[in-house]
Amino acid sequence: MAKKKSKKKTSLWLKMLLGVNFVLIIGLLLSYVSYYFSPAKAWLPAFAGLAYPYILISNILFIVFWLFIRWKFTLFSVIAIVVGYSYLMSSIQFHSSKMITSKDAYFKVMSYNVRNFDLYSNRKNWKPNFEKRNNIFKFIQKEAPNVICFQEFVNDLSGRFKTLDTLVTLQKAINTHVEYTVVSRYTKQFGIATFTTFPIVNKGRINFPNSKTDLCIFTDILVNTDTMRVYNAHFESLHFNYADFEFAEKITSAQTEDEADLKDKSMRLMRLMKRAFVKRALQAEMVAKHIKSSPYPVIFCTDMNDTPISYSYHQLSSNLHDAFTESGSGYGHTFNAFFPSFRIDYILLSDALTSANFVTTESENSDHYPIQCLVKKKSK
Questions:
Q1: Residue 258: how many CB atoms within 10 A of its CB?
Q2: CA 274 remoteness from chain centre
Q3: Residue 373 pairs with which residues in a beta bridge?
Q4: How far is 377 from 373, CA to CA, in rounded Å?
């Protein structure tokens, strides 16, 4: 009798685990759907797309578990992962670096959300913090990109927290295209900026009707005898405050949270994410349409604030290819928070261009990691 009861308990336990496994498989398949459905029309898949790294890891853990318990059950998660193989490869790559010589005609492109150079990290007295700004300056000076696109750029008209004037003196990319969306206290200008060593022959700006803080700019540059269009965009962020990030960190690290606050805080995060998903979708459609009409090969640098398994990424990469998947290596996370982190910063290129040696530099100077690669026009 005791053996029968033990077998029944074991069987019930395994059925419950298999049920959890199936829920995770459905979540994985739903994340694939998020690639094609606009959150403005169906927002639930967008949450699955955002959670893809967690859902993927959970399925992999189940595969390992079933190998020792019921190996046939591994097939369920294996098939689900294989179905989304292309999505997996958008997050993990295994390219090796190329040996590049001066004859190869590559130039260096960098995209970097600098979080206002950490201007107001000291929130107790709101005094400027110069340490991380100076570290970013040193990094840029060392890397010496030919094109660098900054998101969350700040310029201080008072001269107390210099950025724009300093950058054009310490590096070779001195030709600038800077656009601002917000001016604080008549001195602090916030926006995005593109710096380049190449001559700028045209500038333009794409305003987002649903945002007062985000925008996209395009800069036509002359690379030898070829004109190329550089897009620099910052899309709708989640607008989490410090308490939101702290709560999210606790949840992702499985720390306990007061039950009374758990529901309210979770609902707040979901509302913020839903609103951001919808706004980004509309912004991405607008920029994608503009890119399609470009008369020149495109270099698109962006803090998309969305993962490769998202409708926004699908829209923006439909006529471009991803420099990370072409020449990157490792797990391409770019956001310096949570575990596992997300890839939300991109360099996308027209088919007329090719990349080499894509690199993500893990740095604590911003909540985003700088990304860079070498770019050149393909030989005919």
A1: 7
A2: 17
A3: 109
A4: 13
Side-chain half-sphere CA neighbours of 153 within 13 A: 30
Instruction: Specify whether 29 is located in the same domain as 178.
Output: no
Last residue of a domain, one of 57, 89, 121: 89
Per-residue confidence (pLDDT) for residue 125, from 0 to 100: 58
3-class secondary structure, 30: helix
Tokens of 48: 């699955």
pLDDT tens readout for residues 194-222: 999 999 999 999 999 999 999 999 999 99
Which tokens belong to 102?
A: 């001066």
Residue 171 makes CB contacts below 8 A (sequence gap 6+) with 140, 141, 144, 145, 195
Alpha helices in the chain (DSSP H): 2-33, 44-50, 52-69, 74-83, 85-89, 131-143, 164-170, 242-252, 259-292, 311-316, 323-327
Say yes or no: 112 and 32 in one domain.
Answer: no
- Same domain, residue pair 112 and 85: no
The CB density around residue 63, as the number of other CB atoms within 10 Å, is: 18
- Asked if residue 40 has pLDDT above 80, the reply is yes
